């Protein structure tokens, strides 16, 4: 079965990268390119429970990529937004991007994630196969 993740980056920068991995295998590691990007991957649906991990890492962003005014309000920035996470044709974006503590910044702080990546760090989406068991566990 197939999975996909779609993200939308607001600006282009050769210094900032987005790296997507599934089960620690790099699916894509590319610099910020303004616009949407979809990455597809194969999910082996197993009869026995196997834990899976989809990660998205923002790396290479520097302080000068964020412009602040005199009151330290952000007036310009580089970021990407996770628009969708699809597992076996089912949109599970809300399972991961509605306030779960799965965004670990490079300083070690783990934050709630609402779909927005604006600082260097890793967002980790964890689930398990067989998918029907994972889906069932999310509904109870």
Task: Give an overview in words.
With 140 residues, the chain is mainly β. It has one domain: Sandwich (Lipoxygenase-1), CATH 2.60.60.40. The chain is built from 2 helices and 13 strands, in the order E-E-E-E-E-E-E-E-E-H-E-E-E-E-H. It has helices spanning 93-96, 131-139; strands at residues 2-9, 13-22, 25-32, 35-42, 50-59, 67-68, 74-76, 80-87, 90-91, 100-105, 110-113, 116-117, 121-129. A 6-stranded antiparallel β-sheet has the order 3-2-5-13-10-11. Strands 1, 4, 8, 9 and 12 form a 5-stranded antiparallel β-sheet that branches. A hairpin with a 2-residue loop joins strand 2 and strand 3.
Biggest β-sheet: strands ordered side by side in the sheet: 3-2-5-13-10-11
Number of helices: 2
CATH architecture: Sandwich
Q: Largest beta sheet, briefly?
A: 6 strands, antiparallel
Average pLDDT across residues? 93
Q: What count of domains describes the coordinates? A: 1
